[in-house]
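Final report, results section. Input specification for complex C-07:
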Amino acid sequence: MNPQEHNESHRLTASGIPLKPTYGPEDLPESVRRGVESSPGSPPFTRGAYPEMYRSKLWRIFQLSGFGDPTDMNERLKFLLEAGETGIIVKHDRMTDDHLYDVDHPEIEERREDVGLTGTVTVGLRDYETIMDGIPVGDVYCKPGGGVPQSAPYTQSCYWSVASKRGIPLDAISGTGQSDFFLTYLGCPMREQIPPKAALRFNLDLIDWCTERMPRWVPVSIAGYNGADSGLTAHQELGAVFANAIEYIDGTLARGKYGIDDFIHGIGGVNFRTSMDIMEDIAKLRAARKIWSDLLQNRYGVTDPAKLRLRIHVVTAGSSMTYQEPLNNIVRGTVMALAAVLGGTQSLGVSGYDEAMSIPSDHAHLMSIRIQQILQEETNLEAVADPLGGSYFLENLTEELETRALDFLAEIEGRGGFVSTIEDGWLMDQANDAQMKAFAQIETGEKGIVGVNSHLVSDPIVDVKAFEGRSGQEAWDNAMSRLTELRRTRSKREADRAVASLCSQLESEENVVPAVMDAVQADVTIGEIGDSFRKTLGNWTPSARIWS
Amino acid sequence: MSGVRVLIAKTSLDGHWRGTSVVARALRDAGFEVIYAGEMRSQEIVNAAKDEDVQLVGLNIGGRVEVAIRIVKALEDAGLGDLPVMAGGTLPETAIRSLEEQGVTCFPPGSSLRDIVDTAESLTSQAP
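Structure output:
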């Protein structure tokens, strides 16, 4: 493409919003004034969640991490903390944890070499004690795992139990769950997941439980990232995230135990993706805060400004990271991190430069932290809140995204709400269609990806090796030994009692969290907890038309 | 390639469907009849390949190469050694070498959909 063609072509944002060559005062209609003229830290929060933003509190450096044995996980966490990470995330093995399978389950035995490749393997609470060995549980902000709703009560119960065993009261520990619908039913749909309605119940149980006992814990964190990296465009991601939040709010209100002011803090910590269209993503984060503030005020009558504040975690797009010339991804990570910071994120994870070939090596992890530290300490960016506020282009784009997001939200609600559009596959179709369009742009060369479809060189010079973690089936062998040991040394009677009690709790309408907590403390294995769920709640089957 | 049947399966339980779904759609748009099998064990893939009478198997690999090779060997053991196999996913170079030794054609991230479709057409046009 020569520069001439470049200028004449019709330019759009990644989500398809037309772009003009320049923006001016005429692009700031009266309607944007309320957001533009507000102060950071005040409703509608377009300009930031807090008055002084990063001067009062820097964003949290919060990287996804985990592989191999619990000892590997522990070692990596200590490495990341030493490098300057300010919150920790425990990533579990997707095969065993997300499916709640013991390592001797036939589905796992067949794929034993894969165990530990996507996260650390736990067989029960004892492994969680190993993961947290020497980690200051009471002092560090932690996301203990539980990306999918069915594993969220297990992983959080394990973490909370480690804290209790150390004598740290639950109301003193801070961190976040995830328990995300986008991951489970849209981004990475897997077999043997509890159905969406059961997942909703679990999440409402977590909200209930934490509201009563854990004021510093965010029980659920809606992860728009997982929708966006599966294709949803910027405004679709926004609309779907808030449609999901509405289900949590309405569900909790319907239980009649709490008023919205009691629990809304636990729902207002969400996650978005930033990608390479950085102006659109900066606008997206600003629009998100405004939509949330207006929604709570107008629909739910929330008046306390502190309750209207949306807190945002950003993960940079893994899908933007290329397999070819992987060191270019350090630049991409920096650019996407910049979008998160200029959009006013509260915490940030930068995807590893080796993302397209493996989970992060220690060096890739270090680079993700260094990118953030360089932005925090060497740029002066943290000195002024909402540094781009007032930009004709950005304010116009913020409003355009808000309008489109509210339309998408209305469409979801018109289709029966978020869970309905998950159940019938509609939301998945939207993601899939958008994703095909994005791929087509790369395929035709309309969108250039340096080193992949443009500016190719015959020898990219630098070679990066995929991080392999533990080799062969070592992590599986080690987990088998721990599982055997756990079964041999626990009180079988106590474990059986806890499983029976969990099953009866699942069949009742009672909160599931205390029963899972009881089970992990009775050394019930992860697979036995999963079996209890499968027996009482059944499984979700992805809509067949997803791939047809 | 109208009516040529291709089985698409995931070898690992990681759940990521993005690449698989895009490739499945591209093949379907090129006229292939795509049977999307999702996450399957080796014997299930062998059974599906036989039952569905496919002329090509496409594997998405989100885990280690040993698991994929177990599937290729299971196909051979079941007398389906002539069935062409293509693979994509997060494939380190060492994995690509091992798979190519088994006769599997590999497409790492960033591969062109056109190349994938062309290869699928050429592999199946020689089929009996």
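Residues 44-49+56-444 of chain A form a domain with the TIM Barrel fold (CATH 3.20.20.240). The interface with chain B takes residues 94-95, 98-99, 106-108, 110-111, 113-114, 117-118, 187-191, 229-231, 319, 322-324, 356-358, 432, 435-436, 439, 443, 449, 452-453, 465-466, 468, 472-473, 542, 546-548 of chain A (CB under 8 Å). This concludes the modelling results for the funded period.
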